[in-house]
């Protein structure tokens, strides 16, 4: 994890600007399922049931809504193949790949946090 040192505190304007950008990002990526769905689709294109199986705990109704929202925001693409029956695939877009570093940092932080909690629980035992 990159730690910024010796740069001093940001000005009030810089802080307000950064806060607006974070709020914008969280507005688009808000929710329990969006980042896991983006991550799931970054690995390969998938059908609806494949996504639901991979992202454990998500209901069909919530998955459908989240996929629509992600498509509206340009993170996923829905491809309909004219087969019998119709085949629908979902895939990530190039735009979703701009989150690759964010997801890597969140993963690293999550792993670090999990280990910290485990260590804390060991000390309490």
From TrEMBL:
PROSITE patterns: HTH_HXLR. InterPro entries: HTH_HxlR, WH-like_DNA-bd_sf, WH_DNA-bd_sf. The keyword Transcription regulation applies. Residues 15-118 form the HTH hxlR-type domain. It comes from the Bacteria. The keyword Signal does not apply. Keywords: DNA-binding, Transcription, Transcription regulation. It holds the Pfam family HxlR. This is Winged helix-turn-helix transcriptional regulator. The lineage of its organism: Bacteria, Pseudomonadati, Bacteroidota, Sphingobacteriia, Sphingobacteriales.
